[in-house]
Amino acid sequence: MTNKMEKGIANKLENKTKTVHKKKGTKTKTKQKQKQTQKQTKKQKQSPKQKQKQKQKQSQEKEIEVEKNKHNETKLKTISSSDSSSEGELFEPLSDDRTESEEYSQSSSDREAFYDHFLSDSSEDEDLRYTQPSTIGNVPKEWYNEYEHEGYDLEGEKIGKKVIKKRDELDEFMSKMEDPNYWRTVRDSLTNEEHILTDQELQIAFDIQSGKVANPDFDPFAPYIEWFDHPEGKIHPLTNAPEPKRRFVPSKYEAKEVIRIVKAIRNKSYVPTWRKKKIEEKKQKKEESQKHYLLWKDTETDNDFKSNYTRTEQKLLKSRIIAPRPYLPGNHESYNPPPEYLPSKGERTRFENTQEIDRRTTFLPEKYDNLLDLPSYDNFVKERFSRCLDLLFCTRVRRRRKLINPQDLIPKLPNPQDLRPFPTSEMLQFVGHTGRVRSIDVDPTGQWLASGGDDNTVRIWEIATGKCFKIWNFKETVYDVKWNPRVSLSILAVASGDLLFIVDNGELIGTQSQIENNNEYLKHLNVLREKEHFDEIEEKRNEKQKQLKKIFKRRKVDTNWRKPTKLEQATLSGKERNNYGRIAVIIQAKNEIKKINWHSKGEYIVTIIPKGGKNAVFIHKISAIRTQNPFGKSKGLVVTAEWHPTKPIIFIATQSHIRIYHLIEQKMISKLKPRVRWISSLAIHRGGENLVIGSFDKNLCWFDLELSDKPYRDLKYHSMAIRNVTFHKLYPLFASCSDDKTIQIFHGKVFDDFTKNPLIVPLKILKGHKWESKDVRLGVLDCVFHPIQPWLFTSGADKTIRLYC
After folding, report:
1. Do residues 722 and 683 make contact, with C-beta atoms less than 8 angstroms apart?
2. Per-residue pLDDT tens digits for 319-344
3. Where is this region: Disordered (predicted)?
4. Cα–Cα distances in angstroms (integers) from residue 444 to residues 194, 441, 482, 484, 737, in the given order
């Protein structure tokens, strides 16, 4: 049974192979016939020159075929000889219906197609030829640089990278000397294999380098045959599409144009195109020659506007911006104004004292009984001339209404409730002074408050209870009071008239450690005698005092250091039951001392004498009993001075400028230019790179020294003169007090990041103080923050001190 089944399957396979060979034979025969018919038709149409070229090509093709056949026969012989001993047959046996000639013709046609493909010059074929051995595909190999494989096969398995042996320079040299084909070997970048160039490939490369055509059979100088002038007639049309219908129908557009021209000829208004061009050229020449036009011509009232000007001139005149009209005269400009428009004496003096820029009007109204008594206006010619200059030189712009949401104009600031804590309401009043309270200060421990004013007294208050512990009586008004910033000391500096008093309050309010520290700090003052001049003890200075000469230039100083007499000590302390506390030293100047300020270390104190001229600024070192004048020239009226919190730098504020000096290098670092007329106060942030300035012209300026010498922000929240500004030592808060009876509290945060600008937010307006009188409108004179708590102390002309929490 098995033998019968095998025979049946073999017969079926033979029948199928026969039918396949029959079909292939019929197809090849039909193709050969079609080629022969096409060749015959071409031969009939060809010219004699083309026939000669065709014969030459045929002879060349025959020679190439003969060479191909020989080459293929040798290949077949070698393959048959090598595979004769192997089991099975490589080629299929010839069927009964298929002859050897048909088989050879079919194999020769396949060989021709393969050989033509191999000899083709297209780059695509070259890529295919080179990429056929690999199954990776046309994929950049750079994608697999980081991996150990270089692609995947048909079954999805990884193909490992070929190990390419890199030649050394020695190997390259040896191959160059020994290998005769070294100069024609090339490495393929796709397959990473070496390829020896044949003579034909070398000839192609040489031809390309010399600028020749790669194919030797191509004739670059063949005669050009034009498309439409072919010798045998037109062979191919441009398009085989049929003619469209619109080419045989008359145009509607041309019909409309003809009707328009006919109507224009009938109405005698037709102008030909050549005539239009000449008219336009004449208009352009006129417009170029007449570029000028009347600037003040009124187009609305002119009747001959269209007749006198061209269209371009009319456009220019209509597009211009009309000059603004002057204001019509009012009642105040009348020769006989109503009595409520006539100024009083006070208004006249204010008008004369103010500058011309700040005046609301250029004149004051006056009353005359008759027009005959009215004199000529003095500023008439000046005002007319200034108006003409404004119309001529000042630019005018059309204002177009913009649709802007009003909420977008408001700056986006944080909510003040999120910036707490800050003082919001009045909690306590300190009452006792009988005159204006000019200065207040809180000691570094935060328990005691010192105040001084026009009643020639200095009072020391307990903050927790509001009780007055001590009253010092002086002969003249007390302008400034400052505690020493060191927590270990309890020393108060008082500026009264032309005297500077250093008060030791250790026994009064200090602890035992503070009393001991005060004694050590002031022990050098025991050398002084009553009313002893500074020059008499010059020989007793130690080596440390001599080193200070390098810091400042030696100048003659107009100050005296002395101890108070027993009579002065008794009169200053008063007839109270609490006689603790003493005056350690008195420093006398020639003029009144308006401002004093301690250095952050508590060694130096600076005094400001505005009327001192050259001797306006003095720096005193208490422990060394030394006074220095660092500035030999007066740069203006000195108002106040502040120390840098960490560096040896001092800020000197004059009437309109602020100069920053480095004391060790003895030079001016920079000069700040605030946009104010009269500086009243100065405060420096604890970082030292930002400061705030208050002025008598109601401006509050924030300076960032790293940005510019001009204000970073101008804050205008007060309606009257600003008396003082201050920073908190711990919280990001600063405040300003003014004669308008208000205190403005601000949030001022300075960031460590240099890319962020300081954040300034107005928080609260505090009220409570009153004016001294209706005629004398002095409000809040001084303000200072508590050193630990977010509390604010203020003093005013109403003889009170108020605490806001």
Report:
1. no
2. 667 788 888 888 888 999 998 999 99
3. 1-138
4. 90, 9, 11, 8, 22
Q: Quote the DSSP letter at residue 563.
A: B
Q: What is the mean pLDDT of residues 532-553?
A: 47
What DSSP element (H or E) covers 671?
strand 667-672
Cα–Cα distance for residue pair 257/260, rounded to 1 Å: 5
- Tell me, what's the pLDDT at 357? 80
Q: Indicate the helix (H) or strand (E) that contains 62.
A: helix 48-83
Give the sheet arrangement for strand 582-588, strand by strand: 478-483, 491-496, 499-504, 582-588, 560-562
d(CA 356, CA 790): 45
| pLDDT score of 564 | 85
pLDDT of residue 704: 93
Over residues 415-443, mean pLDDT? 93
Backbone angles phi and psi of 664, in degrees to 5:
-75, -45
Tell me the two tokens of residue 721: 């003169």
Select the highest-mean-pLDDT range: 143-147, 191-195, 475-479: 475-479
Asked whether 485 and 469 are in contact (CB, 8 A), the reply is: no
Helix (H, G, I), strand (E, B) or coil at 770: coil
Q: In angstroms, rounded to a whole number, what is the distance separating the alpha carbons of residues 736 and 22?
A: 114
Residue type, 341: Y
Residue 385 confidence (pLDDT) above 80: yes
Separation of CA 254 from chain center: 62
Q: Cis before residue 421, ω within 30 degrees of 0?
A: yes
Classify residue 464 by its DSSP letter. Answer: T
Amino acid 219: pLDDT: 81
Residue type, 742: T
Asked whether the whole model's pTM tops 0.70, one would answer no
- What type of residue is 271? V
Cα 671 from Cα 654, distance rounded (Å): 11
DSSP 8-class letter at 772: S
Query: Could you say which DSSP state residue 179 is in?
Result: -
* Helices of type H across 374-530: 380-393, 406-409, 506-509, 512-521
